[in-house]
Amino acid sequence: MAELHITEYAGVGHDKMGTPVQVAHNELNRQIVPISDSSACSGNVSGSYVRLFADFNCRINFGSNPVADHNSIPLASESVEFFHVNLGDKIAVVSR
Q1: Structural domain count, the chain
Q2: Which residues make Cβ contacts (< 8 Å) with residue 70, sequence separation at least 6?
Q3: What is the pLDDT along the chain (96 residues), one digit of tens a residue?
């Protein structure tokens, strides 16, 4: 079964000069959402940043009650993406 793996983080890391870097910091939670032909939704996100890994080509959408469709953000299979999200938002996913 195809899955979207969501890892939630409190923030991002900083280098020695205090500049933010794309390194997740302080893992809070993990979720797995099945990817299918129908939009499926995660639970509420508890962090400000998420790392998304999809093992199947899909599209994602964020919001308080999101629906993923053909206009949503595409994610390639076997790729990792980081996103800043609003606390309490959910992530919807659908296959593409």
Answers
A1: 1
A2: 59, 96
A3: 899 999 999 887 888 998 888 777 789 999 999 999 999 999 999 999 999 999 999 999 999 999 999 999 999 999 999 999 999 999 999 999
Dihedral over alpha carbons 75, 79, 83, 89 (to 10 degrees): 60
State the sign of the Cα–Cα–Cα–Cα dihedral 78, 83, 88, 90.
negative
- The two structure tokens encoding residue 62: 């964020």
Could you list the residue range(s) of the whole structural domain that residue 89 is in? 3-95
Asked if residue 12 lies in contact with residue 26, where contact means CB atoms within 8 angstroms, the answer is no
